[in-house]
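Appendix C reproduces, verbatim, an entry submitted by the partner laboratory led by Prof. M.T., so that reviewers can inspect both the input and the predicted structure.
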Amino acid sequence: MDDETTLRRKTATLTRMLNHQGTIGMFGHVSVRVPGTNRVLLSPGGGTDKATVQPDEIFVFDIDGNIVHHPGGLIPLEWRIHTRIHRDRPECMCIAHLHARHATVLGIAGHDVVPVFLHGSFLHGGVPTWNNPRLVVNDAQAADLSRALGDKIAVQMRGHGSVVVGESAEAAFFGCTFLEENASKQLEAEIMGGAIALSADEARDCSESTYNPRLFKLLWTYYESKVALPAAESAKG
């Protein structure tokens, strides 16, 4: 089991990797829950250079929304997304709020995200939509978004972005990566005349061979090497 120091590094690394992919945007954010506790590690908010986020810039909340540690800097305005979903989905150890382009465009167009290729097959359970483009700035909105997510891996936020959850930081990163790649391929195929969704059997079989810890680790390691900071900067964390 990872300790909090390790999880702070993971939270910072995940932030940098999603920034590298272009899916987190200026205002997106991620959180990791410390196993066996009510402590939630949260990346910094808008105005922070997501390309250089360090462990010592990570906020700590409890799942009731109280700040346990404030490192300075800006708290994400939509921190309630994390505390509420961590409370409602205790099996989910990581949550990401994305502003990924193609998935958001599908939501704006009123198209459901459906699995259309091998690594998007994990979405075969469906991607519901929270039909509200507003910022999540109060408890009622956070609870409503959490209800829309239900027991799924991802939820669209119409005209806003998405939320992806995972049983680990590595699983959530896989979900973030391939939600957007699936949406990109789906959108391009729709423009060409129509996207052919995977059948239920195809999606189930493909998911069994791709949505697993071995590939989670491979994907994480591949991107982690791309966002590693110089030794001098890394020592700050």
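The mean pLDDT is 95. Additional entries are available on request from the coordinating office.
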